[in-house]
Structures are given as structure tokens and as C-alpha cells.
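Need the bound structure for biotin, inputs here:
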Amino acid sequence: MKEEKHQMIVLPCVGSTNDELKKMARGGAPHGTVLVAKRQTNGRGRLGRSFASPEKGLYMSVLLQPDGPAEKLPTLTPCAALAVRRALRRVCGTETDIKWPNDLLVNGKKLCGILTEGVVDMHGVAAVVGIGINVNTDEEELPQELSGTVCSVLGTTGRETDIMALASAVTEELEKIVALWETDDPALLEEYRAACVSLGRDCYILRGEERVSACVRAVADDFSLVVDTPSGVERVFFGELVFA
Ligand code: BTN
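Answer from helper R.:
Posting the output first, comments after.
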């Protein structure tokens, strides 16, 4: 990762920090620009879902123009989960598991989601890594249908967290992780495999309308999953797992 100082912009409210940062990237924002919003009115999740973003959570996006081929950019997504995991441990003392590809869980409940999107800026293809963490969030403010499946740092630790300290720690850890990513350091895969709670689990793979039962056998060297399915061994490059 280049050695520029990160520029962190903090706004009270935006539709989606990913959308705003993509606009800024097209307008020439540099690598390492960070956008934090106190809340979002149109927070977006993976697979076209919405992401509830009430006050007291951390909603941030980071613009990355790392050294590496565009085809490798999707592997930044699982790596970003490692950065957030490290930051949560450092700032909040919270231990998380990674559900492939990049949800962070505590006791099986989701604490953080990550949405990485590509953007074409004047340097070529860049990545916008969007991170949403339920930090001091009142769990009652999250959608009713998520009840029992999500959690917050406050609910987990009983302590309030300084949200901007967490945002800074995420940015720092992301910088370190990107440096490892750029050199294909095998330590990244090792750390990811140790954190990935999907390994060995019976699950369903959701691909659009399709639902395939599978058992997760391994995380491959490109961070895709190797799964056993009724029709044989398959590789999963994208999509969502639901634990059986
Ligand atoms: C998911 O769990 O499906 C991914 C959620 C990603 C949410 C973050 S919050 C900051 C950034 N802005 C968005 O609109 N989405 C991401």
C-alpha cells in the first residue's frame, strides 16, 4: 500500500458511504481516502440487500488502489475481514469468527458486514471496501427480522466503544493487511483459515434462487471455498452460505 497519510472524512449522514466514496474516487480522491458516516439512509449490503445503519454504529468506506492485477481485487474482501477482526480485538477486546467470505460473528451472531465494490477511477480499477459494524448500537433499532441473528459490541462486551478510535484502528489494520496482500504473503491465508468458522460446516450455498447443500472442506489459496456437494466437489467463488 502506498505511503500516503489517510484522509478521513466524517459526515453526519449519507445515503451510503460506498456510493459517496465511489463518486469521490471518480473525482480523483487518492488511495487511502476514508469516509465515515454517523448513519446511513440507504446502507447497502451484499447480494443487493439493504444494511440497517442507525446511529451509534460504525459505517465506513476505504478507497484502495493497491499494487496488483484487477483480477486479484476480489480477494481483498476476505482480507478486509481480517483487518476488522484485528481492530475489534485491539480496540474492543472482542474476539470474532469469520463466516466466509467476510461476515464477522460473535457466538454465531453477525456483528459486522463488509461490501467491497470495484470502481474505475483515473488510475484504473480501484476497490471501495465498505464496512458496517454494530458498535454501540441499540439492538432494538435493528430490523425485527434480524432479531436473534445479529449482535453489537456493546451487547457483547457491556462496554461503550469510541467509534472513531475503532475507525482509525480499522484503517491502520487494513493498511497492514493490504501490504501483505500485495506481496501474496501466505500468512494472510493462514490467519484467514484459522478465523474461518465455515470450515467443516454443513451448510446451504445460496446462488440466486438455487440452494445447494454442501459441506465446507477447505479455503483454497484464492480464498474460494472447496465444498462437497451431492454432485461432487465444487469451488464456490461468490454467494452466501447458510449454516445447516
Ligand atoms: C453485508 O453484510 O451484506 C455487507 C454490509 C456492508 C455495509 C457497509 S456500511 C458502510 C458501507 N456502505 C454501504 O452502503 N454498505 C457498506
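Comments: The chain has a mean pLDDT of 94. The first helix runs from residue 17 to 26.
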